Amino acid sequence: MQNELSTDVILQSLSDSFKQFILNFNMNEIDKTLPQLLGMLRTAEKVKKAKIVRVSTFLFIEKRISKLHKDGLLDPFVFEQIDVCESCLLGKMTKTPFSGKGERASDLLGLIHSDVCGPMNTQAKGGFQYFITFTDDFSKYGYIYLMQHKSEALERFKEFKYEVHNQHGKKYGIISQLTPPGTPQWNGVSKRRN
Predict the structure, then answer these.
(1) Buried/exposed code over 140-165 (b: 16+ C-beta within 10 A; e: otherwise)
(2) What is the C-alpha to C-alpha distance for residues 25 and 102, in angstroms, rounded to an integer?
(3) Are residues 123 and 188 in the same domain?
(4) Are 137 and 80 in the same domain?
(5) Domain span including residue 117
(6) What is the pLDDT of residues 79-111, one digit of tens each?
(7) How far is 134 from 142, CA to CA, in rounded Å?
(8) What is the CATH number of the domain that holds 155?
């Protein structure tokens, strides 16, 4: 009970610049000890310092906690023992702009880009909700295969491989290069075709 009261007093004494922090803290019903709360506030203040905050609110918080301790409402603890929450700092990081150039093919079918798209809101004739594209990097020639289910992607790839083998009469090695989710810029050739 004393910890909850102390936490409430500290949250109420924060300036308006911590309004979002307080809202998140209360909304998520975070059950933290006082040292953990102070660690979170230090992290929030570091983020705010990066945005150039005029007043150091942590000194105000530290004075407020000292007053609570002197009034007997709070047990003593050492501020230096509070660690910075690295997960909190990482969660507040933003993505850096993508500026890398991908490798390009120097011959026909040297590099193939593929992408599965769907499910579409409207089904095509035959009940197709998905499609998969294969785009040659060198010639930008594209193949498209319709699919009823996403799980058919491997079968469509086998069809594509068989078709390419029949057209050009030679076998090609396959090296899978996956892109991380949420980074369409890494698969730009396929995304532009879709």
Answers:
(1) eeebebbbeeeebeeebbeebeeebe
(2) 42
(3) yes
(4) no
(5) 112-193
(6) 555 566 667 666 766 666 666 666 778 888 888
(7) 6
(8) 3.30.420.10
